[in-house]
């Protein structure tokens, strides 16, 4: 049960849910944790559908049955809108989530992407919600990798080629958390200018420790939010000796997506206006 964003103990109304991690019951705890995570995943998927997002298969065309396909969520205008925001989750989280840890132990809505989706819709963007950790299915005998979604990199590549490549959006912004940031940078390195022509802003949250900046060549569209203990602001040098600011907030990496949502969207809007003002001054469409 969720009360004011907190998971509540159904056996003790009014008491917050606390996950028991006692060593004596480690095997049972793991089973309970996995069951809890599955329940959270399904509830978040329901919330995405309540936000009028629909599930799309990954790959788009597959010989596999639905049970052995991955999927993303998309707003109904995602492939027709001139503006598109792509949300990329990080390690361990499924579509619509930033952090399972935050959902379970802190605040359900801090750990989901719902507030980002609502803000993106309010600003007139189409939305794609990726699912980079949905990589396999387990049957009674085997663990089966999902073709086209074997890992986060393959998932992103498949989604881009199947859905983004031919969509109408000329203005694409990407918001990625944790490992999702590395997937984005690696993908850009492979596709170069074809990627950069349409992507005007990339917001990376808690991704700095994973990114190989020397080869990324993304300094003109990228901004990173990270948190370090006892620091207010950190300026980071890039391979071209440029610098950019990192927002430093509470010493809680899992909560950072929620905490920095306002400056993330401020950055995206400023980059969008800059790109389109430049187009107008150049006389291009």
TrEMBL record:
<dbReference type="GO" id="GO:0031048">
    <property type="term" value="P:regulatory ncRNA-mediated heterochromatin formation"/>
</dbReference>
<dbReference type="GO" id="GO:0035197">
    <property type="term" value="F:siRNA binding"/>
</dbReference>
<dbReference type="InterPro" id="IPR053858">
    <property type="entry name" value="Arb2_dom"/>
</dbReference>
<feature type="domain" description="Arb2">
    <location>
        <begin position="5"/>
        <end position="209"/>
    </location>
</feature>
<dbReference type="Pfam" id="PF22749">
    <property type="entry name" value="Arb2"/>
</dbReference>
<protein>
    <submittedName>
        <fullName>UPF0528 protein CG10038</fullName>
    </submittedName>
</protein>
<dbReference type="GO" id="GO:0005634">
    <property type="term" value="C:nucleus"/>
</dbReference>
<dbReference type="InterPro" id="IPR048263">
    <property type="entry name" value="Arb2"/>
</dbReference>
